[in-house]
Design goal:
Elements lengths: L1 E3 L15 E7 L2 E6 H21 L6 H30 L3 E8 L2 E7 L5 H28 L5 H20 L7 H14 L2 H29 L6 H32 L3 H4 L3 E5 L4 H9 L11 E5 L5 E5 L1 H5 L15 E3 L12 H11 L5 E6 L2 E7 H10 L1
Helix pairs in contact: 1-2, 2-3, 2-4, 3-4, 3-5, 5-6, 6-7
């Protein structure tokens, strides 16, 4: 089970949801059973049937029903694991977008950006602790059962499966919860989240290799031959962990690169004209080279009496005005108003900048850059998107 924090992008579309069946909502987010889970349920049911038949040989075909009941029990444990992630994530200020149960267990997705190491630690650790608590509950119930029958078999299986899921998820490597815990600890010590991500990602790759080596080495140490099914499952799990760890490292480095993007560095210069000016005035202002030898302004911003940015001229609309009409046409006829509250400070950068643009741009392509009440440039969200893709 993993938690995922999608990277922020300027004016993004709604987060892409996992495909499957929505069975409810937790923390304001849909709970989704993906189609791949049904494959996992089938495989787990078949694998568990021999255990049921060994305990209760007289069940016949009913052994499959009992085995499926175990799968549903496991599903409930996964659901509680993800619910714990979701509730703590929301309590730490995140926007939970989905809880999904998948072929590999499940994941909880959220947006908002973890601001402190403690946030990541708490969101991650609560999932495995939930499984360990369930394991303890099932185990005590199993110990209290006077006879060994089908219900007690399910209690025993519930205890073992939750203990395994809880312990496995605490392994210190991304994309497991233990990897996020390690990431948070390294982040807290070094003050750099990217360092934590890279360290936890490489440890995750070591864990991926270790899973396969465990499947091969343990039987040899016991003097037996590795089972093909065990090796295949270990290889699949190892491949999943390796891919997840690699993606975490890439995302961590990309997040650091995004942190270096600033409004000042991405903004285009702008000329200013007061409200009521003509198109001719705007063109003359635009042709004026700013002090310091900067390039000719890319945009003309219309400002109010208090220098508040009001609108930005539309280049196509300006070009459509005949030369003879430029001194008669006012700029408000060829300008696009700025979205109120969309302005950014030149020093705004990284995820703070991307989050602001996503939340405040209102779908507009251009936003003003304002410092000390004066427009210093215009930020084009297309430029921001290209810079993000280049990281």
């Amino acid at each position: 089970m993993t938690t995922s924090e999608p990277a922020s992008t300027p004016a993004p579309p709604a987060p892409q949801r996992s495909k499957g069946f929505v069975i409810g909502r937790v923390a304001g987010a849909p709970v989704i059973v993906t189609r791949s889970w049904f494959l996992a349920a089938f495989i787990l049911t078949v694998l568990f049937v021999p255990n049921v038949q060994a305990i209760a040989p007289g069940l016949g075909a009913g052994a499959y029903l009992v085995a499926f009941a175990f799968v549903l029990l496991l599903f409930g444990s996964v659901f509680l694991h993800e619910t714990a992630h979701a509730l703590v994530a929301r309590a730490r200020g995140q926007n939970v977008t989905e809880l999904a149960v998948t072929l590999w267990g499940g994941h909880t997705a959220y947006t908002g950006g973890l601001g402190r190491p403690l946030d990541g630690f708490l969101v991650a650790v609560v999932g495995p602790l939930t499984n360990l608590a369930l394991a303890a509950g099932f185990w005590f119930a199993y110990q209290a059962s006077p006879v060994l029958n089908v219900p007690t078999l399910l209690l025993y299986a519930g205890a073992l499966s939750n203990a395994f899921v809880g312990a496995f998820n605490l392994l210190p490597g991304l994309p497991l919860d233990g990897g996020q815990i390690l990431e948070s600890l390294v982040w807290a010590v070094t003050g750099k989240r990217t360092t934590g991500t890279v360290v936890a990602g490489w440890v995750g790759r070591a864990v991926a290799v270790g899973v396969l080596l465990w499947a091969l080495a343990v039987p040899f140490l016991q003097g037996t031959t590795p089972r093909l099914t065990t090796v295949l499952w270990s290889a699949l799990i190892g491949a999943f962990l390796w891919a997840g760890a690699g993606a975490a490292i890439t995302n961590g480095l990309r997040r650091e690169a995004v942190a270096g993007l600033s409004a000042k560095g991405l903004a285009s210069p702008a000329a200013l004209v007061p409200l009521g000016s003509t198109v001719g005035d705007a063109l003359r202002a635009r042709a004026t080279v700013p002090a310091g030898g900067a390039s000719v302004p890319h945009h003309v911003v219309v400002v109010g009496q208090d220098q508040t940015p009001v609108a930005v001229l539309d280049g196509n609309a300006v070009a459509a005005v005949p030369e003879s009409a430029r001194e008669l046409t006012q700029v408000d006829a060829v300008a696009v108003p700025f979205v109120v509250g969309s302005e950014v400070h030149p020093e705004m950068s990284g995820t703070d900048l991307l989050t602001h643009l996503a939340q405040r741009s209102g779908g507009a392509r251009l936003v003003p850059v304002v410092e000390h009440g004066r427009v210093t440039g215009v930020l084009d969200l297309a430029d921001v998107a290209r810079a993000v893709r280049a990281t």
